[in-house]
Amino acid sequence: MRRQAIVAATGLAIGVLAVACITTGRGQTDDSVRGVMAQKLTHAQQALEGIANDDLNKTRLNAAALIALTHQAEWRPLEKPEYLIYSAEFRDAAESLQRHATEKNIDAAALDYVRLTLSCVNCHKHIRDARRAGIELPETFRVAALALVDRRNAEGGKP
Fold it and tell me: What are the pLDDT tens digits along the chain (159 aa)?
């Protein structure tokens, strides 16, 4: 009798977990993309702080963290050619930033940071333009773009 109760309770728990995964799985993916974008912003800000304060070790460490983010699955919510180009530009700029920070070349690191920032701006602009044109983007990509708009609104910016 006890064994049947354990089997029934286990089956019920598995069923509840399966339903929870089905209903929240998409949200977890969306949250994962948001999380990666938030980490990107934090590491980019820290890299800039390192440049501004002549702490190129801080810049190097945060550039390495940015490079690591580009290898996460959440970084690639879609495999469109345009997105892959923006992603490659970002990774190239982050790698150059890391190299120049290691070499203690602050001028080159500052230019790399500008390239890094422009790659972000261009990619996010592409996402916004696609939305405005009515081009359907995968849900995770759209949610990441909307999260940026929400963040801008929360900071008092215009949508």
Answer: 544 444 343 333 333 333 333 333 334 456 787 889 999 999 999 999 999 999 999 999 999 999 999 998 888 766 677 888 889 999 999 999 999 999 999 999 999 999 999 999 998 888 788 777 776 555 565 555 556 555 655 666 543
Query: What domains are there in the chain, each with its CATH number?
Result: 26-154 (1.20.120.10)
CB 37 within 8 A of CB 143: no
Inter-residue contact 75 to 88 (CB < 8 Å): no
φ, ψ dihedrals at 115, nearest 5°: -60, -45
Whole-angstrom Cα distance, residue 45 to residue 50?
A: 9
Instruction: Indicate yes or no: pTM above 0.85.
Output: no
Contact at 8 Å (CB) between 145 and 127? yes
Tokens at 89, concatenated: 């530009």
For 2, 8, 16, 21, 24, the CA distances from 11, given in Å and listed in that order, are 14, 5, 9, 15, 20
